[in-house]
Structure formats: structure tokens, C-alpha cells
Write a structure and sequence with these properties.
The protein is an alpha+beta fold and 605 residues long. It is 37% helix and 22% strand. The chain folds into four domains: 8-200, Heat Shock Protein 90 (2-Layer Sandwich); 218-333, Ribosomal Protein S5, domain 2 (2-Layer Sandwich); 365-400, no CATH class; 403-605, MutL, C-terminal domain, regulatory subdomain (Ribosomal Protein S8, Chain: A, domain 1), CATH 3.30.1370.100. The protein has 18 helices and 26 strands. Strands 1, 2, 3, 4, 5, 6, 7, 8 and 9 form a nine-stranded mixed sheet that branches. Mean pLDDT is 81; it is low at 335-400. The structure holds adenosine-5'-triphosphate and magnesium ion.
Length: 605
């Protein structure tokens, strides 16, 4: 056995194998270099998903010809001033990225520092060419051509152009979120795929961050999120967390940054799940962008070849900080929401009883104005004229909390009984022979739609229902493309949609079974589903997931008033449908109390 040193070229290719996995990894390294160089704007262009060309230009500090020569040498870096790996304050620190990229592609770097001429250095499959002058206005321009031409095995593992671009866009967006003071663009050679201006000076750092987050995560997020600001043992947590009502099917929109570095960390996912667990259904995930600032000595960034993971000296502190910070913000939000609800109710009450008001309050005045709004409205409802007009002007818009019905004539011998009332527009109360049943109308209907859809699909008998007004749903470009790939499959399921420009789809027909559904929410969730379904799997193979998503959006939402016939129809169908006792999330759809239970409640037994 003879031990020999590997040639530099091969050493670099081995390093590249770890650092540069796909075009997006090269984009990440180059954009990080531009950020470390103090750039104010960074432009990225990819051709053929980055296979043919990756171009990254910046207006940062630039490099002298000497520095250019060193930059492509392995383990040459300007970023570890005291050779101290426990004190990394830049994104780069190993001096490994450029030689790695140069060993597996045709790399050319043009650069100039202020007040000097530009120079260019080229590396081809690890072979470094002589420096030559290159005209350049400012900063640095890096071109990577024919990535992996020197390592064909790696080339084979690349996915479609679109997938590779999506990864690159995601990479740029993550870095952009952590650096709102820098302008970013990324284009696929024909169109800009993401662009975000630097807005720091317009509204202060916080305004700039929220605007940047809105560019990446959508305006919904900016409008429905809570400010997070917490500190513990010298570790600071800032950022934004979505209200529980804004939720998605995947954890894709949970972003974590440690000292300005985007990282993926199970610690985050677990901590966020813990903080939201009382507010979200199983299988739903919140949207968050959290920024942790921590003494660099307390976190090791040198644990992952692509620097995508970090290790904390004390993970418990960071976890506790995230859970505590989120819970605190959510608790404050809950309080705020409940006071506004109370204010509205009081406001409605006052407007009816205001002294000198010309409103004819009719018989209800006999209560001396001390009757609660809900009761007053219920009474009005009960005595209301048959044509549906209200006897109290101005009260039509405020729905009563209880819809009282005339006594039921329906047969109480059905297992789920005869509907008597709807409470809070959410619960149906039915009288049975033995007691009473309370049904959660949303949960029950969701289950019924799910079962009906599965039966209809199995027999190939899905009817569509055209939307009066086709609905345009805005989505990110990757989601639009994922949906667009499966238009035929969706049509078979009764959902007719089309691509509508790069960032939207238009929905023309929905499965008739869904009735009045929340089309935009449905399409967004289906797009999320698709991101988890492999491209080789057909929708039919994942029918349960798709049906469940559709059923959830097609269901009678809590908060919809049902008349007695509708309620009884729902009860009768539940009796005939398998698994109708629980909704698709495993919660019960109804609760039954028999008379003995009720008597016990009142101490009669
Ligand atoms: N866009 C740029 N502008 C100015 N200098 C740059 C730029 N890109 C690279 N450099 C210089 O080249 C050196 C080598 O870059 P390279 O990415 O290979 O290593 P690094 O950033 O130091 O560490 P890492 O391997 O962790 O990324 C950097 O330390 C920096 O001095
Ligand atoms: Mg670098």
C-alpha cells in the first residue's frame, strides 16, 4: 500500500461534492460572498436552471488582482481575522466556495476596487488561467458556466430546469429576508423571478423588514402577523409570527435566521409547533420569520458543509426563548381580539338604546334597555315578520346568537334526532328520543363532503359547477407551475383551472359537491399538497389528501345560518355515512347527552 497526496484539483472536487450540491448551492455561496463584500444590490441570473450559466453581480468592495488570485485558492479567505472559528461574524469563513465551484465548472470572476481598473480570473475544471484586464464599472461579477461538466455523475442528479430555479429562488429569498437593506433580483434569463428593492431609508429598519417579508411570504403575512421581540440570557429574538388563523399545510413558510444566516433547524419547527399547539388543527402550520441574535461564541456554524445548520451551546435557551416569545405574542393578540369583539357588541347595544334615538324599539323597551343584545335580537328574530324584514331598523345586519325555531315536527326516533335550534351559527341542537345531540356543523359537513367525494370519484361521476365569476387566485410562481402541471388531473376531479400569468391561476369550475366554497383557500392548500406529492405520483394515488383538502374548503363553515330543513338533511346524511362520527382531523362531529346525563347535571339523580 502506498499513501500519496491527492492532486489539488481532486481535493477541490471532493470539497465541491459537499459544498456544491446543485445550482442553488452555488447561488448561495456567491450571494453570501456579495453580502459579505458589503453590496447594496445583488443581481442573479440563471440559464437552463443554472446548468448553462449562473451569473451573480454585486456593487460591493471588489477585489484587487492579487486578491482575485488568492480568492480561487483553497482555504484562502479574508474573513477569519484572528483565525478564530469560535467568532465567525461573516457568512463565509472557510475559503472553500470559489475553488470548489472552479473545480467543477468554468468559472470567471471580474472585479475591481474603487479607483482602480478591473481584472478577471478564469478557472476551468480546477485549472487556473492567468489574470487579464477586464472592463467593469464597479464591484464583482461572477460567471459560472457549465456547472458539473467536470463531474458528470453530479450532473445526472439535477432535476428539471424549473425545480432547480425554484431552489435558487428560495435560496435568494431566504438570504434577502435576512438582509432587507440590500436590493435583490433573480431572473431565469427571460423573466425576473423575484425582485425586492432596498427600502431601509423609507420607514426605518422594522418597516423595511416587514416589507421584505411581504415580498417573500405575501402581503397576507404582513397584514396578519404579530411582532415578536423577546430576550433571554443575552439572546435576542425578533421577527414576525402569523396569527393562527393564517395557516398552511406545510412548514415551508417557517423561517429561522441565526445572526443573519438562514438555517434549517428542527429546533425551530418543534418550538413553533409547541407554541401554536392550542391554536392550530393537526396538520396545519403557522407562518413565522424569526431572527435570533446570539453571541457568536455560543453557536457553532462550522457543522454543516453548506452551513445550513448550526449547533447551539445551549439549545434549551433558544428553544425556550422561541416558545416563550411566540406564546407571549399570541396571548397578547388573543386579549386584543376579545376586547374588540366586546366593544362591537356594546357599541351595537348603545346605538339602539341611545337617548333621543328615533329608533322605535317597540315592545322590547319594556325591558328598560337592560336586556342583553343577544337576547333582544333573538326575541326580535322570533317575532319577526315572515318576510324576513326586521322590526328594528338597523338590526338586520347583526345576526342573533341563537336561531330559535318553531317546535319541531320531525321524528325524534332518528338516531341523531330532530333539529331544534342552531346555536352560535355553529352548533345544531337536536332532540332525540333519549336526550339531545349537539352537532358541530362544520366538522360534520366536512366529513360528509369527503365521503361523497371519494364515492363520486371512485365511480367517475364528478359533476362540475361553473363559477359565476371566475376567481383569480394569486400564488407564488412555483405553486402556479405545480398546479399548471396537473390541470387535466384536476379537471377529472371537477376542478377546472388555468394558469393566469406567472403569479396566478384562474378557477372556472369547482366540484358541484363543494357548493359555496372558499376557492382561494382551496387552491392555495392544494398547491401546498402538491409540493409534498412527488411529480411521479398521480393525484389519484393521493386521493385521500386531495379529497380531504377539498372537503375542508367546501364545508358548511362554522358561522353559516342553516334552516331547519338543511339541519335535518345534514343529520339524516350523517346517519347514513360511514365514519360520520369524526371529522377529517379526528375530532368528533357530534356529542350526545342522554336524559340521565342531563338529570345528573341538575342533581336530579
Ligand atoms: N463578491 C465578492 N466581492 C468581494 N470579495 C469577494 C467576493 N467573493 C469572494 N470574495 C473574496 O474571496 C474570498 C474567497 O471566497 P470564498 O467564497 O471562496 O471563501 P469565503 O467566503 O472566505 O469562505 P466560504 O468558503 O465559507 O464561503 C473571500 O474571503 C473574499 O475575500
Ligand atoms: Mg464565501
Amino acid at each position: 500500500m502506498k499513501i500519496r497526496r491527492l492532486p489539488e484539483n481532486i481535493v477541490n472536487q471532493i470539497a465541491a461534492g459537499e459544498v456544491i450540491e446543485r445550482p442553488a448551492s452555488a447561488v448561495k455561496e456567491l450571494v453570501e460572498n456579495a453580502i459579505d463584500a458589503g453590496a447594496g444590490r445583488i443581481d442573479v441570473v440563471l440559464r437552463d436552471g443554472g446548468r448553462a450559466l449562473i451569473l451573480v453581480s454585486d456593487d460591493g468592495s471588489g477585489m484587487t488582482p492579487d486578491e482575485l488570485g488568492l480568492a480561487v485558492e483553497r482555504h484562502a479567505t479574508s474573513k477569519l481575522p484572528n483565525n478564530d472559528l469560535t467568532h465567525v461574524v461573516t457568512l463565509g469563513f472557510r475559503g472553500e466556495a470559489l475553488p470548489s465551484i472552479g473545480s467543477v465548472s468554468r468559472l470567471s470572476i471580474s472585479s475591481r476596487v474603487a479607483g482602480a481598473d478591473g481584472w478577471k480570473i478564469c478557472v476551468e475544471g480546477g485549472h487556473v488561467h492567468a489574470l487579464q484586464p477586464a472592463p467593469l464599472d464597479y464591484g464583482t461579477r461572477v460567471e459560472v458556466r457549465d456547472l458539473f461538466y467536470a463531474t458528470p455523475a453530479r450532473l445526472k442528479f439535477l432535476k428539471t430546469e424549473r425545480t432547480e430555479i425554484d431552489h435558487a429562488v428560495d435560496t435568494v429569498q431566504r438570504l434577502a429576508m435576512a438582509h432587507p437593506g440590500i436590493a435583490f433580483t433573480i431572473s431565469d434569463g427571460e423573466r425576473e423571478r423575484f425582485t425586492s428593492a432596498a427600502t431601509e431609508d423609507l420607514g426605518g429598519a422594522e418597516g423595511a423588514l416587514l416589507r421584505r417579508l411581504a415580498d417573500v411570504m405575501g402581503r397576507d403575512f404582513a397584514e396578519n402577523s404579530l411582532t415578536i421581540d423577546a430576550e433571554r440570557d443575552g439572546v435576542r429574538l425578533t421577527g414576525y409570527a402569523g396569527l393562527p388563523t393564517l395557516n398552511r399545510k406545510t412548514t415551508k413558510h417557517q423561517y429561522l435566521f441565526i445572526n443573519g444566516r438562514p438555517v434549517r433547524d428542527r429546533l425551530l419547527t418543534g418550538a413553533v409547533r409547541g407554541a401554536y399547539q392550542d391554536f392550530l388543527a393537526r396538520g396545519r402550520h403557522s407562518l413565522v420569520a424569526l431572527f435570533v441574535e446570539i453571541d457568536p461564541e455560543l453557536v457553532d456554524v462550522n457543522v454543516h458543509p453548506a452551513k445550513a445548520e448550526v449547533r447551539f451551546r445551549d439549545p434549551g435557551v433558544v428553544r425556550g426563548l422561541i416558545v416563550g416569545g411566540l406564546r407571549h405574542a399570541l396571548a397578547e393578540a388573543g386579549h386584543r381580539a376579545s376586547t374588540t369583539v366586546a366593544d362591537t357588541a356594546l357599541g351595537a347595544f348603545r346605538s339602539v338604546n341611545a337617548p333621543g334615538s328615533s329608533t322605535d324599539y317597540g315592545g322590547a323597551r319594556g325591558f328598560g334597555g337592560r336586556v342583553s343584545t343577544g337576547l333582544a335580537e333573538a326575541a326580535v328574530q322570533y317575532f319577526a315578520p315572515r318576510d324576513g324584514s326586521s322590526v328594528i331598523p338597523g338590526l338586520e345586519s347583526a345576526p342573533p346568537a341563537v336561531a330559535i325555531m318553531e317546535p319541531s315536527t320531525e321524528d325524534t326516533s332518528f338516531p341523531l334526532g330532530a333539529a331544534q335550534a342552531q346555536l352560535h351559527e355553529t352548533y345544531i341542537v337536536a332532540q332525540t328520543a333519549q336526550g339531545l345531540v349537539i352537532v358541530d356543523q362544520h366538522a360534520a359537513h366536512e366529513r360528509l363532503v369527503y365521503e361523497r367525494m371519494k364515492t363520486a370519484l371512485a365511480s367517475g361521476a364528478v359533476t362540475c359547477q361553473g363559477l359565476l365569476l371566475p376567481e383569480v387566485v394569486d400564488l407564488d410562481e412555483a405553486s402556479v407551475n405545480r398546479l399548471a402541471d396537473r390541470l387535466d388531473e384536476f379537471a377529472e376531479l371537477g376542478l377546472v383551472l388555468e394558469k393566469f400569468g406567472p403569479g396566478a391561476v384562474v378557477v372556472r369550475e369547482v366540484p358541484a359537491l363543494l357548493g359555496q366554497s372558499d376557492v382561494a383557500g382551496l387552491v392555495r392548500d392544494l398547491a401546498d399538497d402538491l409540493s409534498e406529492i412527488g411529480t411521479t405520483q398521480s393525484l389519484k394515488e393521493r386521493l385521500d389528501d386531495v379529497c380531504s383538502t377539498m372537503a375542508c374548503h367546501g364545508s358548511v363553515r362554522a358561522g353559516r345560518r342553516l334552516n331547519r330543513d338543511e339541519m335535518n338533511a345534514l343529520l339524516r346524511e350523517m346517519e347514513m355515512t360511514p365514519h360520520a362520527g369524526q371529522c377529517n382531523h379526528g375530532r368528533p362531529t357530534y356529542v350526545e347527552l342522554n336524559l340521565t346525563d342531563i338529570e345528573r347535571l341538575f342533581g336530579r339523580r
